[in-house]
Design goal:
Number of helices: 6
Largest sheet: 7 strands, mixed
Structural class: alpha/beta
Strand content: 15-25%
Distance between the termini: 42 Å
Helix content: 10-25%
Radius of gyration: 22 Å
Length: 290
């Protein structure tokens, strides 16, 4: 039950409600008022009953996405050509899309049109990375699970180069792969999926590994957000590395756990790519971990 506020004609009132990451039903009853809008995390709540989506918290992240070894893919919607550079011959002018580099803005056309216009080339290449979220065996609302979702959301929302595509892979009622960046769409659908994600208890973690490995040939790298560092999770990392995919792993742990892991498993040769994240300390660790 939320607060009840009565507003006089031409008056105003502020309401502060604390909610967690979830999808809730909100009722707004504004009587005879003709136009009332409340804004919650950028989403508008109008004078009717509707779903209110609360996005996960996001923390600043220092350089989570690094260039891969060069396994590039044509950008979404772009024609395939034979060139191997980042861009080939000029093809046309088009509207700016999320993920485009400002270096490609055609300033004269932008001034004439009153909106950003960019140069499109015959082929533009992208680098595809995976963000893999472990939801297996967690307890709904637990500190560890919510921290893992916040870490994944922070990584999804972190700045990326204009030529990078991000695939979010997670498992709920079904395996899901959502894509953002480089003409494939904004990051908002990824955050909305994370807002609604819950624990998976009826399938093994290897199912998520199967999804990631299926797309491994196209990946420049993968970041795994894991709820444990047991043999099953290590096997997912091992399989991706066996397919030539560089892997970073964030292992979310209980609040009182250590920030180091004695057994580095398949990342023993790259200890810089294995990060322990005690619940409640994600913001500080993400800000200081490349």
């Amino acid at each position: 039950v939320g607060p009840h506020v009565q507003v006089d004609p031409l008056g105003h009132a502020g309401v502060e409600v604390e909610v967690g990451r979830c999808q809730i039903e909100a009722t707004a009853n504004f009587g005879e008022l003709s136009t009332v809008t409340a804004v919650v995390d950028g989403l508008q709540l109008l004078r009717r009953r509707q779903a209110l989506l609360v996005l996960p918290p996001r923390h600043p992240v220092r350089a989570p996405w690094s260039p891969g070894p060069g396994r590039r893919q044509p950008a979404a919607g772009h024609s395939r050509a034979t060139g191997t550079g980042e861009a080939d011959a000029f093809a046309c002018l088009r509207d700016f899309r999320p993920g485009d580099s400002v270096r490609h803005i055609h300033w004269k056309s932008t001034a004439r049109a009153g909106r950003p216009i960019v140069r499109q080339h015959a082929e533009e290449h992208v680098q595809r990375h995976a963000l893999v979220l472990d939801t297996f065996g967690a307890v709904t609302g637990s500190a560890v699970f919510e921290e893992a979702v916040a870490v994944a959301a922070s990584l999804a929302a972190a700045p990326r180069g204009g030529g990078m595509v991000l695939d979010l892979m997670l498992l709920g009622p079904e395996a899901r792969r959502l894509t953002a960046g480089a003409g494939a769409g904004p990051v908002t659908p990824l955050l909305e999926a994370l807002a609604c994600v819950g624990p998976c208890r009826d399938r093994p973690v290897s199912v998520l590994g199967d999804l990631a490995v299926h797309h491994a040939p196209a990946l420049e790298g993968a970041v795994c957000v894991l709820l444990a560092w047991d043999e099953a999770r290590q096997a997912v990392v091992r399989r991706l590395r066996a397919h030539g995919v560089p892997v970073h792993a964030y292992v979310v742990r209980p609040p009182d756990a250590a920030t180091t892991l004695d057994d580095r498993g398949p990342l023993a040769d790259r200890p810089d790519r294995l990060v322990a994240v005690p619940a409640g300390r994600g913001a500080a660790i993400l800000a200081g971990t490349p």
